[in-house]
Amino acid sequence: MRILFWGSYDLGKPRNRLLIDGLRRNRAEVLEQHVSIWDDIADKSLLNRRQRLRRGWRLLAAYPGLLLRFLRAPRPDVVIVGYMGQIDVLILWVFACLRRVPLAWDAYLSLYNTLVEDRRLYPRGGRAWLLYLVEWLGVRAADRVFLDTDAHCDYFARRFGVDRTRFRTLRLGVEDDVFFPPRRPPDHRGEAPFLLLFYGQLAPLHGVDVILEAAKQCEDLNARWLIIGRGQSSDDLRRRLDDLKPNNVEWMSWVPYRALVHLIHGADVCLGLFSDSRKARMVIPNKVLQPIAAGCPVITADTPAMRERIWPAGAIRLVPPGDPTALAQTVRVMASDLATGASSASVEAGSLGLGPREVGAELLGHLHALTAASAKARGADDPTKPSRSISRQLHAAAQRMRRRARDFARQTIRGARYLHVQRVIAGARLFPRAGPFLVSRISGTDPLATSNRIAIYAHYDPDGRVQDYHLEMLRALATAGFRTTLVSNAEGLDRASAVRAAPLVREILVRRNIGYDFGAWRDALSYLGDRKHVAQLLLCNDSVYGPFASLAPLLRRADPALADVWGMTEGRNHGPHLQSYWLLFHRAALGDPAFARFWQRLPYIDDKFAVVEAGELTLSRCLRASGLRLRALFPYDEAVASFRRTADPTDATTAGIRRALDRGRAMNPTHHFWRVLLSELGCPFIKRELLTLNPAGLNDIADWAEVIETRFGEHPACASDHLRHLVQQQPTAGVAKLMRRLRGIMSAP
User: Fold this and answer.
1) Of 667, 696, 671, whose CA–CA distance to 683 is shortest?
2) How far apart, in Å, do the first and last CA atoms of the chain sit?
3) Left, alpha or beta for 229 (phi > 0: left; psi -120 to 50: alpha)?
4) What is the pLDDT of residues 604-637, one digit of tens each?
5) Residue 185 falls within a domain, yes or no?
6) Counting Cβ atoms within 10 Å, is residue 9 exposed (0-12), middle (13-18) or buried (19+)?
7) Using CA atoms, how far apart are residues 169 and 309, in angstroms rounded to an integer?
């Protein structure tokens, strides 16, 4: 495999040197296109503004030459941007797409988390948001992102809103030619003091204040605490030493990197990190791995990241983070053990999988998987085949760039939409809309007055009418035994429509169009009164046509013994959730405090995206968090499996959906899998938006009526009539056109 390391990666850091060495030890062909910007700076946070600007200009000036070298070099199988490559990965992304080279980024850690959240060098303002934006874009530009721990991967996925499958854990390693066990074990007999060694850049996550407090508590012990390093916390360390005045602590500003191993060999125990910060919980630092590889035991904080590895007996002692007393007690125990003849750990790097060969093999495995996935996504469109003409290669490259640009735009829009949605929800909760919104209550015939099955049907029609497909749904609900309340967000509902619907419902609530369907359901629930007698509650709306078959078989499948809440279908974007056009709640869910609490806290919102977040997504999250069981009658995985089994592989739209699924992207089942939901799985509904707007741009919806008639044996007359007479308002204003285009980008496969 030919692997290209590209960019301004810092060769002063062991991480980059070890990965390159490890790949070469595994017989990979490693090419380097590198410019030295950071190699001579151990702690970048100590640079002043002028120094940062000077190096930034050097970096920008180096990119044209680096890119020219990349374009002229033989095509590699994969290109890796090493640490620190936040800008590199953005610069290289377009050119890697042009050459169809998978792009991997060894992020290693988050600069936003380090500089803003942990070290707090940048307040939460312009520079902090710029740093966040750079990493937010970077994780989307790279095909694969490597980090040092599972906890770090989880943080990146959560913080930057990216699917967890994009990240891989690549463990930190040790340079075995620098850190090696002593040739003979140290002799702990005699009167020499017990030596504890700490070295590092004195960052906040190291918890040097905890070390000093523990040293102060151990002044009566024949021990010497040696601290080596300088950095952001140097002034704090000096002040703490002046305040505590421990007589057993020695501070050295720095020693050469290759001299550390000799200090480790002379130490009885090395110290890791002891802060209780978020960053400390996510990392396994060099100061833990290197001493173990050099044969010295380590004391460090007990964190989730430290629990990810299996450590040899005696090599490591874990103490509660931020607890100097626990550290002091552990030091006393270890000093006593060594004084009575116990020996320190002596472990070779290779036996722990810490050496360059082992880490390189792990990275090579990840890269083989990445190139295989990339080749699968390319399919037969491989420009390396000599039979391809130049024009076809250029055409294929343009298509790839278009797909990648759409993916990038989709992620950018999703991030902007998330910020907009959170702002709208926060505003709605801070300044709630004043009700009531009810305009009128119209009594119905109430044909099922004694039923303990209750349905609330949310309706809206711009002309204030109850259409035939609305009546079709109301009849199906009555046939299934539901006592139905029709809630209309059409404030001007005409009397004739009310007369048509009255024989099928308990009552009709006409309200102002505030809060979409969730606002309608919230108001209807408040008028419903005591729900103790209710065995089932069905919330549904008119965003679908149907049902095209009886609801009775589906209701029998919605067994309360299997789940407390049932949906017709489920989505996976932003986490698994039941799609809200059809939600069935059994008695256990209705009596759960989380159900009532959700509706009490739900704000009235007029933004559709914000309603989806505050309503559909939050409802599923709240109920799951309360321990309730949620299931879909037509699960997402079944729809995907059926689609893969039956879809035409030669169709362009189908191929696009397959590629999106292979990349781990969640699709909307009621749009992208509408055909298999109807024809294969028997879902009796079809989304109205799919037929009127088709935001995903699917090319196979023209025969929707025939698909329904073939499966269910009846022509969907009500849906066809409504579509024929529906006046589709084409957006003319610039903003409306832009919004429709953005929705198309978000929905297209």
Assistant:
1) 671
2) 31
3) left
4) 998 888 999 999 999 999 999 999 999 999 999 9
5) no
6) buried
7) 12
